[in-house]
Amino acid sequence: LCARSLAPDARVNPHRSLLGTGNYDVNVIMAALQSLGLAAVWWDKRRSLERLAPARALGFILNAPAGVSLGAVALPLRRQHWLAVRQLRGTYYNLDSKLPAPARIGGEAELRVFLRDFLSRGLCELFIVVPKAVEEAGTWLEPE
């Protein structure tokens, strides 16, 4: 997708890691979601998470600095890492590929605590995955 649609004429694709390690930029994620009729809405960290309407979201995509390792050896490097959060039968799960299995977060209250903790770490971003109609209506936010 990043070569075909976002940079078809580029010799070195600006939307992915030079090493091909999968650290795609947000434009690739947004284009993939748009092709499915979905949108990724950037969360402004100045907003209270109490305004978030999790029931109207299909999921959450987070980006944060993460450690780098070579096998079992941790390297003194950090790079951005994408992870997802989804709800299944009323329970939210952290689907980080660096975890051995999905990690249970809990209900909406625990989700807000998880997201608040995550966003407090510094160079972290949150995107809310919603149907295009929800994005256009702005109903991913609770009314003030």
TrEMBL record:
Subcellular location: Cytoplasm, Cytosol
UniProt name for this protein: Josephin-2
Start and end residues of each Josephin domain: 1-144
Organism of provenance: Dromaius novaehollandiae (Emu)
GO cellular component, one term: cytosol
Any one Pfam family match given in the protein's UniProt record, by short name: Josephin
PANTHER family xref list: JOSEPHIN 1, 2, JOSEPHIN-2
GO BP field: protein deubiquitination; proteolysis
Leading EC class: hydrolase
UniProt catalytic activity: Thiol-dependent hydrolysis of ester, thioester, amide, peptide and isopeptide bonds formed by the C-terminal Gly of ubiquitin (a 76-residue protein attached to proteins as an intracellular targeting signal)
Known role: Cleaves 'Lys-63'-linked poly-ubiquitin chains, and with lesser efficiency 'Lys-48'-linked poly-ubiquitin chains (in vitro). May act as a deubiquitinating enzyme.
EC annotation from Swiss-Prot or TrEMBL: 3.4.19.12
Molecular functions per Gene Ontology: cysteine-type deubiquitinase activity
InterPro entries: JOSD1/2, Josephin
Keywords per UniProt: Cytoplasm, Hydrolase, Protease, Ubl conjugation pathway
Keyword Protease found: yes
